[in-house]
Write a sequence for this structure.
């Protein structure tokens, strides 16, 4: 992957949060949240409802100010320059909401234009194919598209943005097992191409397929972190025993 | 490039094209109706002169010099301004043709008040109506959910995350809708203006006024949108705003102005004049004639009347005019005061301001109507002096004298009927 418009220092972590505190009124939502995601890495942020997952996303995107600590995306501070930071990020919300009255190709062209980008028709077709959307659906309006198909359009859009960071909010929720598996395979391809992927989810089994590291978010902070390789490699049974019930229940 | 995408996004919405086409149809219909009405008025005015000539031809020669001014009606007319097709204003309720005799004028002047009272409330369906009342509804339909629908569909976060300038994104969307609405409402007016030969300066002025008014409603929609309510709540607030700004406030303002500046009805002046004329039969002739000669010393040497005499008859008509003149001036001043207050309110209530300016430019407002009455008064005065030349000199008035009578439009500011 490469950045379309903003040159990035490759040595800098793509996403870095250190002791981040976010309050809403008297309530502390994120409390000393710390984690980093490098290029070519998939980081899964797991947590139950109210753990602070959505707030973490909004803070990384620069939609929410933080009261303490530091957030950097490719070296830029979202609180200072939200637009620049968002230029580094392809964000996939939980419910991919595109325009029903536009075709898949038109949706992509529109959102790229909003981002100030333009891609050739061949590149758009290639991205849609890469995301796994059937060719016959490329020029169809989105009315009648399944959630998985919409997800693929959104992924194609994210690919075409050619940004270094992917921020995914519950990307596999509502997808059938086969679609989830396809999606995870796609994430691995993006990671292998150098993307930094932050995935917020409570799908423990899904992230085990693709995540390099898993951060367990509890009460606004990382309670534990597990890695996929090396001597400390996570064990699914152990993870499930430690967190699965709580996460799955959420 | 992004504009093309925004345009496509908007035009693919289910309500977009039907709404735009409906506005285009309404604007076109209003212009066609306005052109038809002004053409009809011009045709009626054009028919007046042959009718006038036929009337005069039917009159017989007579020895009595009072017969001609008593029997001859002289046509006056207020030809429509080229812009009148767009803003008919008072032309549907106030007379644009009035045939007057050299008798008392005030009784003749307000006959028109009873012409079309039923049209006074709804008003005409003209371009000014579409612009003032209907265009805001289209703004509401197309813009009430500009942002709210994105929030409700869950697209806001994605849009904001992708946009380099979210403010610009919403501005572009508003601009696309605003420009398309403008593009629907303006061309019918431009075609009508070209057909009606409206001066370029007025075309530009109306176009700018329409743009400003549209921008006001776009700004209001933006303001409501910033409250962050749901689309249904936005629509409700904007419709309430429309009701208040175009109906309730103007109505209340009208009531307040009428209450602050009480004005008698013109018809009351006509009745007062008639009572003066009827009462004059009981007043000694010398008293009436002396009053007449005070304002017409030129004829004071006329032979004294014997029995019934037209000199006396015409004199008491003029004296009746003079006796109601202060009330007539107060009536006119009261109307002008009301008009002035309305113009001032126009700075605060856009719907009033727009209509007042359109009617002023089209010369279809109250002041134009009063100016027409002033021209009639001037013409009537010339008619009187013309006929008095025969009446008070005891000169017989024959058929050959008719062409010498003053004609409407001879330096009167009345436009020729062919326009």
């Amino acid at each position: 992957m490469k950045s379309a418009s903003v040159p990035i220092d490759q040595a800098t972590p793509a996403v870095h949060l250190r002791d981040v505190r976010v309050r809403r009124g008297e309530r502390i939502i994120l409390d000393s949240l710390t984690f980093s995601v490098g290029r070519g890495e998939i980081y899964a942020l797991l947590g139950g409802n109210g753990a602070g997952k959505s707030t973490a996303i909004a803070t990384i995107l620069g939609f929410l100010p933080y009261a303490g600590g530091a957030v950097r995306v490719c070296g830029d501070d979202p609180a200072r320059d939200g637009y620049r930071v968002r230029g580094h990020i392809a964000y996939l919300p939980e419910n991919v909401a595109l325009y029903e009255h536009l075709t898949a190709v038109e949706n992509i062209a529109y959102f790229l234009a909003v981002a100030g980008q333009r891609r050739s028709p061949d590149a758009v077709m290639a991205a849609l194919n890469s995301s796994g959307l059937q060719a016959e659906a490329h020029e169809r309006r989105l009315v009648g598209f399944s959630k998985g198909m919409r997800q693929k359009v959104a992924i194609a859009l994210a690919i075409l943005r050619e940004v270094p960071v992917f921020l995914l909010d519950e990307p596999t929720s509502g997808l059938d097992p086969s679609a989830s598996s396809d999606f995870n395979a796609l994430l691995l391809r993006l990671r292998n191409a150098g993307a930094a992927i932050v995935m917020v989810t409570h799908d423990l089994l899904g992230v085990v397929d693709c995540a390099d590291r898993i951060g367990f978010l509890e009460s606004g902070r990382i309670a534990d972190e597990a890695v996929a390789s090396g001597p400390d490699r996570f064990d699914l049974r152990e993870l499930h025993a430690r967190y699965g019930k709580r996460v799955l229940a959420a | 490039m992004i504009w093309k995408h925004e345009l496509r996004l908007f035009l693919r919405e289910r309500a977009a094209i039907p709404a735009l086409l409906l506005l285009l149809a309404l604007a076109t219909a209003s212009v066609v109706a306005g052109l038809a009405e002004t053409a009809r008025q011009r045709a009626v005015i054009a028919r007046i002169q042959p009718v006038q000539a036929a009337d005069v031809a039917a009159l017989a020669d007579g020895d009595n010099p009072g017969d001609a001014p008593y029997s001859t009606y002289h046509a006056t007319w207020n030809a429509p301004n080229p812009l009148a097709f767009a803003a008919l204003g008072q032309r549907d309720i106030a007379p644009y043709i009035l045939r007057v005799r050299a008798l008392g004028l005030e009784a003749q002047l307000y006959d028109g008040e009873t012409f079309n009272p039923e049209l006074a409330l709804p008003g005409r369906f003209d371009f000014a109506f579409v612009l003032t009342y209907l265009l805001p509804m289209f703004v509401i339909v197309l813009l009430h959910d500009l942002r709210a629908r994105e929030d409700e569909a869950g697209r806001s976060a994605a849009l904001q995350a992708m946009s380099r300038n979210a403010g610009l994104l919403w501005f572009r969307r508003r601009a696309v809708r605003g420009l398309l609405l403008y593009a629907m409402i303006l061309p019918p007016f431009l075609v009508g203006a070209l057909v009606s030969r409206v001066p370029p300066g007025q075309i530009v002025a109306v176009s700018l006024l329409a743009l400003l008014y549209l921008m006001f409603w776009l700004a209001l929609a933006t303001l409501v949108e910033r409250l962050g309510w749901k689309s249904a709540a936005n629509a409700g607030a904007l419709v309430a705003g429309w009701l208040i700004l175009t109906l309730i406030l103007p109505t209340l303002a009208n009531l307040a102005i009428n209450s602050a500046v009480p004005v008698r009805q013109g018809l009351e002046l006509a009745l007062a004049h008639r009572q003066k004329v009827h009462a004059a039969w009981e007043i000694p002739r010398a008293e009436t004639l002396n009053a007449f000669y005070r304002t017409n010393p030129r004829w004071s040497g006329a032979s004294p009347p014997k029995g019934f005499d037209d000199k006396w008859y015409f004199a008491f008509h003029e004296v009746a005019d003079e006796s109601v003149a202060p009330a007539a001036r107060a009536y006119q001043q009261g109307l002008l005061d009301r008009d002035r207050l309305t113009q001032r309110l126009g700075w605060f209530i856009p719907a009033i301001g727009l209509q007042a300016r359109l009617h002023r430019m089209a010369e279809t407002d109250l002041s134009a109507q009063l100016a027409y009455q002033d021209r009639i008064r001037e013409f009537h005065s010339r008619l009187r002096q013309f006929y008095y030349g025969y009446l008070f000199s005891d000169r017989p008035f024959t058929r050959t004298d008719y062409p010498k009578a003053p004609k409407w439009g001879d330096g009167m500011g009345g436009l020729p009927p062919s326009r």
Summary: DSSP finds eight helices and nine strands in chain A.
